[in-house]
Each structure stands twice: as C-alpha cells, then as structure tokens.
Write a structure and sequence with these properties.
Layout (H helix, E strand, L loop, with lengths): L1 H18 L7 H27 L6 H14 L22 H4 L1 H24 L2 H22 L3
Bound molecules: heme C.
Heme C binds next to helix 2, helix 5 and helix 6.
C-alpha cells in the first residue's frame, strides 16, 4: 500500500515535469518568480535603509547579511522577463520592456552591479561609504519603474 502510494506520488511528480511548468519555462510562474524576487529585494533594502536612518539600531553584521542577499537577489528577476509569454502575463510589466529589452536588461545588470558595490562597502564597515553606495543602488529602482512598470 505504501509502495503504491509512493509510486502514485512519483508518477504525479513526473507527469508534472512532463508539462515542464517552472519559472523558466512557464509565463505565469515566471511572473511569480520575478515578483517574489522584487519583494525580497524590497524587504532587504528596507532593513538597510532603516539601519542607515536610525529607525532600527545599526549592526554591521546585519547590514552585511542584507547586502549579501541583495547582491544575489538583484541578479534574479531579469531572466524571468525572457520566458515565452512572460510579456503578456502581468499588467504591471509594461510592453515597453520588450520593445527595449536591451535597455531593460542593462538596467537590471546595473542594479546588480550597484548591489555588489554596496556589498563591498558593507565589508569596509564605513558608514559614509555604505550610505553613498546605498544611494547609488536605490536610484535604480525608481528610474526603471518610471519607464517600465505600470502602477
Ligand atoms: C530594470 C528595471 C527594474 C529595476 C532596476 C527595479 N525594478 Fe522593481 N519592477 C520592475 C518591473 C518591470 C516590475 C513589474 C514586474 C511584474 O509585475 O511582472 C517591478 C516590480 C516591483 C515590485 C512589485 C512586485 C510584485 O509583487 O508585484 C517591487 C516591490 C519592486 N519592483 C521593487 C524594486 C526595488 C526595491 C528595486 C530597487 C532596489 C527595483 N524594484 C528595481 C522593474 C525594475
């Protein structure tokens, strides 16, 4: 009985993979993947901001953790914009993205690059450097949203 149950579970898992519904092949999952990536970026960024403005106490190790996360998270959303059908699956992503995909992707790369600089600045534990790197990093969000995100 247990065996039967196991093989049924395996079978359903396998048939799932035949449909190949992952964030890298299926438009709706791709939208979910990129939106969740953006949410995680937002949460990590907010904590850095709160530390820099004194809303929560500054802790070097906590800042480093957020900056390390941002360095990875900011590399994630972009490939989910190139999945077939991913241009039609969210009303928040403007059609202009796919008309200017190179510009859009290079803005994504810039964000990831600035996140790396923030990560390096965090390693110095010099708040002046962290603040400057954070300001450069934060600029990217609004600049891209103004052009490519509907509200
Ligand atoms: C290169 C362009 C670009 C950059 C840079 C960018 N975003 Fe976005 N962002 C988008 C687009 C496009 C969407 C809409 C995605 C969708 O709905 O498919 C979005 C959506 C979001 C969302 C909503 C996600 C959801 O749940 O629907 C949040 C939050 C967000 N971005 C935060 C940020 C933050 C914070 C930054 C900067 C650290 C940032 N974004 C940088 C393009 C960008």
């Amino acid at each position: 009985m247990k065996k039967l149950l196991l093989s049924t579970t395996l079978l359903s898992l396998l048939s799932g993979s035949v449909i190949a519904a992952s964030a890298f092949t299926e438009a709706e999952d791709a939208v979910s993947y990129r939106q969740h990536s953006f949410q995680l970026i937002r949460h990590n960024m907010a904590d850095v901001k709160d530390m820099l403005t004194g809303a929560v106490p500054f802790e070097a190790s906590r800042l480093q953790k957020r900056a390390d996360a941002l360095a990875t998270l900011t590399t994630l959303p972009w490939e989910a914009f190139t999945v077939p059908g991913a241009d039609k699956a969210s009303k928040d992503a403007k059609a202009e993205i796919w008309q200017n995909l190179q510009d859009f992707q290079s803005r994504g790369e810039q964000l990831a690059k600035d996140a790396k600089s923030l990560q390096s600045a965090a390693q110095t534990q010099d708040q002046t450097k962290v603040k400057a790197a954070f300001a450069a990093f934060a600029k990217n969000c609004k600049a891209c949203h103004d052009k490519y995100k509907a509200d």
